[in-house]
């Protein structure tokens, strides 16, 4: 999703400097650095690897991939005592071994998009960051239709690199090009191709990771349980993923993207009501999600309205799409003028509201938007009635100063055919769509932040009758700390029956819970 680049970095710098001064530099710290340097291959002078808070680059390195500003100026989180900018696998291994030796924890950061900042802040642990931004190469094996992608690569780098080799390959993963492979693939990964090819995690065929003992394991040496867990269970609980081997997905040379926008007066409520039955049952080549938001009504001063954007991708040409739309959703009034034909790679720009720009922007890791945000997710199993939908929209319209948005992401297609236990991500057959509630803002004061967070919680409470129950499901990649810190409570929400198996794997591979964060899988004995 595209968001503005605006807030001044100066403010951030000040906040960061004040906070980092608190992390004292002491014996532990120096001994860590000495040990680390002794146990890694000598690095050349041009690439710095360790950043302690007393170095000028620390702030810049820390914020280099932070996507959610509210964790930068929060007083309830702590910052790393050291950042390891790994450029060699041996750095990652040493970081694990040294941290254990020195009683520090590790937070791993690939793309830095974690919704609760868990890759770069902590609520209490003393920790280091292992930053994998330099681990970013993508090596394509065109003959076998696979690629090894390093964990720090962004989705944009993956999409761009594979399309350079072959215009008819894509990869089923998220729509935001700056999201990192390390977090995204290990937490599931949903996007425009998921109805046809499943989640990103469904397309992982091998992996390399550093375990709690600092060993490098691949699929064969880690075993199938361990390999299962890091394909949707969140790798942060199990180790540090260095790379994933993925299966590439066929895409036609020309695809068609479109946005059809309907406001209340244009029967938006009827159309979205209907969409709930159609969207999840469409031809799997057609992905049609609905984004809804409230806004001032341009045609009626002082009134509010709802805009429903049917934000879509068809894996084929406009002509065929017209036939598909005519037979499955004639009410929408889709016409040839709505079609935008392009390559699949260009469609990534379309979904990021970057249409018309060169595809090289997908390689730009710095398309940073300096915003704060909060999101939550729900799964819908029974269509919401038109009356209920209107009540939900009334809630959005009344929350005048709250930038609330709903992304309704259709399921169905191949997602229905994959068993719930195939990967830790269990939301398959029986789910019509997922809702992401999303809000973002530019203000940095705590009062505004708290007000927004509280409206988000109100909306979530309001939605209770309309969404999945027992458990009320949530999507791990849309991590939500409001689900609590008690694993027995949030575990089944993210993973349903797969939660227990994740805890068993954890017991085997990291029994002392070294790899942990505020919502990580605990070993069975601490459940
Ligand atoms: C703007 C935006 C758009 C998004 N769009 C989508 C979308 O379209 N579809 C979708 O499914 N999701 C989407 N997401 C959510 C995204 O998938 C998750 O936030 C994902 O976890 C981010 O991965 P990351 O590597 O960028 O984040 P990070 O913050 O680096 O990591 C996220 C979590 O994974 C852990 N982790 C990271 N790398 C590793 C590693 N190498 N080994 C072990 N653990 C690791 C971190 O410690 C942290 O717990 C979006 C997020 C944002 C901010
Ligand atoms: C090092 O600093 C941390 C705080 O950052 C403190 O908790 C710890 O006790 C210190 N250790 C020594 C040996 O001074
Ligand atoms: C920063 O702190 C580390 C660890 O205490 C120390 O080794 C290093 O010399 C310090 N660097 C600067 C520039 O002060
Ligand atoms: C990592 O270091 C090892 C040992 O020095 C070296 O053999 C290897 O080539 C390095 N790998 C990379 C990617 O730099
Ligand atoms: C030194 O490090 C830089 C940055 O990581 C790298 O591009 C370069 O190849 C390295 N040079 C040598 C001689 O290893
Ligand atoms: C390109 O990928 C398609 C599958 O998406 C495959 O059939 C074709 O052989 C590939 N072409 C080349 C030149 O590798
Ligand atoms: C504004 O909304 C009110 C209440 O719903 C309605 O009666 C009125 O007709 C609307 N005004 C316009 C210009 O549409
Ligand atoms: C998309 O970009 C255009 C112009 O660049 C902007 O006016 C519009 O608001 C953006 N839309 C979204 C949904 O961000």
UniProtKB/TrEMBL annotation:
Name its co-factor(s): FAD
Q: In the record, what terms sit under GO molecular function?
A: FAD binding; oxidoreductase activity
The answer to whether UniProt assigns keyword Signal to this entry is: yes
Where does the record locate the signal sequence feature?
1-21
Keywords in alphabetical order, please.
FAD, Flavoprotein, Glycoprotein, Signal
What Pfam families does the database record attribute to this sequence?
BBE, FAD_binding_4
Locate the FAD-binding PCMH-type domain: which residues? 76-251
The family this protein is said to belong to: Belongs to the oxygen-dependent FAD-linked oxidoreductase family.
User: Know the name of this protein?
Assistant: FAD-binding PCMH-type domain-containing protein
Species of origin: Musa troglodytarum
Q: What is the organism lineage in this UniProt record?
A: Eukaryota, Viridiplantae, Streptophyta, Embryophyta, Tracheophyta
């Amino acid at each position: 999703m595209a968001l503005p680049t605006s807030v001044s970095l100066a403010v951030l710098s000040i906040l960061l400097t004040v906070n980092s001064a608190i992390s004292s530099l002491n014996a532990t710290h120096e001994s860590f650095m000495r040990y680390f340097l002794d146990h890694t291959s000598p690095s050349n002078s041009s690439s710095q690897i360790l950043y302690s808070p007393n170095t000028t680059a620390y702030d810049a390195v820390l914020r280099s991939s932070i996507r959610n500003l509210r964790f930068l100026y929060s007083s309830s989180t702590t910052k790393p005592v050291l950042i390891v900018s790994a450029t060699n696998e041996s750095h990652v291994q040493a970081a694990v071994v040294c941290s254990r030796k020195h009683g520090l924890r590790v937070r791993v950061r690939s793309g830095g998009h974690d919704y609760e900042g868990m890759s770069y802040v902590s609520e209490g642990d003393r920790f280091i960051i292992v930053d994998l931004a330099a681990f970013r190469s993508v090596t394509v094996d065109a003959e076998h239709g696979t690629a090894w992608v390093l964990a720090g690569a962004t989705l944009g780098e993956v999409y761009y690199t594979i399309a350079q080799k072959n215009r008819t390959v894509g990869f089923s993963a998220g729509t935001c090009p700056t999201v990192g492979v390390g977090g995204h693939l290990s937490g599931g990964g949903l996007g425009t191709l998921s109805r046809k090819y499943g989640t990103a995690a469904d397309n992982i065929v091998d992996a390399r990771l550093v375990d709690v003992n600092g060993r490098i394991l691949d699929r064969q040496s880690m075993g199938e349980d361990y390999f299962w867990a890091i394909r949707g269970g969140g790798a942060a609980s199990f180790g540090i993923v260095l790379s994933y081997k993925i299966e590439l997905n066929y895409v036609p040379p020309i695809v068609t993207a479109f946005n059809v926008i309907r406001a209340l007066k244009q029967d938006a409520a009827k159309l979205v009501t209907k969409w709930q039955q159609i969207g999840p049952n469409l031809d799997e080549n057609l992905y049609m999600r609905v984004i809804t938001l409230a806004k001032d009504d341009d045609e009626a001063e002082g009134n509010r309205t709802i805009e429903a954007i049917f934000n879509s991708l068809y894996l084929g040409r406009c002509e065929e799409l017209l036939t598909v739309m005519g037979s499955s959703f004639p009410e929408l009034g889709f016409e040839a003028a709505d079609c935008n034909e392009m390559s699949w790679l260009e469609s990534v720009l379309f979904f990021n509201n970057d249409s018309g720009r060169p595809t090289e922007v997908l390689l730009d890791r710095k398309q940073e938007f300096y915003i704060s945000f909060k999101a939550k997710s729900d799964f819908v199993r029974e269509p919401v009635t038109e009356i209920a939908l209107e009540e939900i929209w009334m809630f959005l319209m009344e929350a005048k100063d709250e930038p609330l948005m709903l992304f309704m992401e259709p399921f169905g297609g191949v997602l229905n055919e994959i068993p719930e236990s195939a990967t830790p991500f269990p939301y398959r057959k029986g789910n019509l769509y997922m809702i992401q509630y999303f809000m973002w803002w530019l203000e940095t004061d705590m009062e505004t932040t708290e007000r927004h967070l509280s409206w988000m919680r109100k909306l979530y409470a309001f939605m209770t009758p309309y969404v999945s129950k027992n458990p009320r499901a949530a999507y791990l990649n849309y991590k939500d700390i409001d689900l609590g810190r008690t694993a027995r409570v949030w575990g089944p929400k993210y993973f349903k029956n797969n939660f227990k198996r994740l805890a068993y794997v954890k017991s085997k591979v990291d029994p002392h819970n070294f790899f942990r964060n505020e919502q990580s899988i605990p070993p069975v004995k601490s459940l």
